[in-house]
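Table S5 (text form). Sequence records supplied for joint modeling of the two-component complex.
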Amino acid sequence: MVRSSPLLRLVLRTVVVGYLVLLVAWPVSLVVTHTFDGGFSALSKAFADPEVTHALQLTAIVALSSVAINLVFGVTISILLVRYEFPGKRLLSALLDVPLSVSPVVVGLALLLVYNPRSGWLGPALADAGVQIIFSTPGMVLATTFVALPLVIREVVPVLEEIGDDQEWAARSLGASSFQTLRRITLPGVKWALVYGVVLALARSLGEYGAVKVVSGNVVGSTQTATLLVDQRYQNFDQPTAYALSFLLAVASVVCIVIVSVLRPKQEA
Amino acid sequence: MSIDISHITKRFPSAGSGKEPFVALDDVSLTIPSGRLTALLGPSGGGKSTLLRIIAGLENADSGAVTIEGTDATHLPAQKRNVGFVFQHYAAFKHMSVAKNVAFGLEIRKRPKAEVKQKVDDLLNLVHLTQFADRLPSQLSGGQRQRMALARALAIEPNVLLLDEPFGALDAKVRKELREWLRRLHDEVHVTTIFVTHDQEEALEVADEIVVINEGRVEQVGTPDQLYDAPANDFVMRFLGPTTEINGVLHRPHDIEVFTHPGIAGSIPARVVRELRVGFEVRLTVELLDAAHEEITVTVTRAHHRSLGLRPDLDVWLAPTHGAVVPVMESVTA
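The corresponding structure-token record, covering 603 residues in total, follows.
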């Protein structure tokens, strides 16, 4: 290890801690203090509001659905990327990063262009079949899934690469079918990466705003998620409810992270 | 009953477009007898591991057929071949205990619990890992992990046991212990075993039969003694041990006698240039006193070295040892 002077270490520490306090800890703590300005009244008032409970329910439904979809497709795509060779593999890998680099608003608009029931590319056909995507839950799930798409994959791919395919081949030679190998060898091998990816995806999905706002239509009591409601209440000077909802969203994310750090083994061999 | 490999060819696409594909195996035919311990020996990249993986079904040949104990296995997937495979880097199931690792193949086959437990106990006893049954693989040493992998492969009572450089990742001392142990284990279990190695000493020490593979072709098949005493060609001769060339003929450096006086029939004059003592032997670098003045290596025991009074700049006469040269056996057609 490189030895550094105590003074330099002190300065570095101060800079880092100061940076994090100003950027993260201070603003978030303000949300907490504002939520509890009037004791628990803001929270209890928020929970009594049917629009709030509906928005929270909708957020939970959208987030959990998109996490489930991202889990299934994330594992499939990761295995495809690591274990198989096919033309266009590098293109697919690059495409997977698009949701990270493109603004969520653009994602929402793009989905609108495809699924809009009147003028969309695929929307009218789906509308004729009685399936409504835009301005309803499926569209919001779609947008959220798109935005959180790479999170599971980017966690699982490096672990799959690191563990290699020897264990899988060993299982096959011992008589396991490909499904048995997946269930008993591959999935347990990437378990922690999966848990971590799912938690990241869940946190991201709970907090998604831009893409959902475009595709949902932001209809109060119908297609309004918690983040959309926070914004609306804040604009309409109902700050206590906005703070209470923000607090709940932040708590959900923090709980996710805490669960992972408790579950994750100290030192994975 | 045996393993028959007929006309196996395997090519791998080369990195970079437009290049010729790399030929890993070039029309290889081979019969491996049952119940024996056979070594596939050759330099890295010679195709021996590819051949092993094709026998196991981990890799598909471009053409040719594999027959295991009378069954055509060419198009059977790996899990239907009943083949035990041991990997160089153990391929231990990291999230399972040692006992669970060994039980894996039996649980997949849905054997009764009592039978599985009995079998696992027996196998752990066989590989001396009984007291480690509940540990995770990460808590074992490399040698222990490889013994666990062997027990796991033996649990399914395979028709054939395949080992891919099984001791390659271990340090020299453990490697030596484990190969002696493998030899004894094979004498107890008698399962047809093929192991891949690039270490000629390992092959000579452990195997009943050695197949020398180089550049995708079989160079020679035979017992260790046949290969050492009667190599089919210069490649086999060079690969199995050190060689020295006199007048275009290869000899082992320890199969050349050194005299300090002339007059021996067929002897050639030379002069000692350097000497290097390594343990029980002395490696002499001698210069042939012919037109080319070639330098060659000759090995003598330290006692012989002392009794002859060998030293640099001494004139000596060299003659191939009588009885070391055996007529070259019929070359094996690959």
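Note: The mean pLDDT of chain A is 88.
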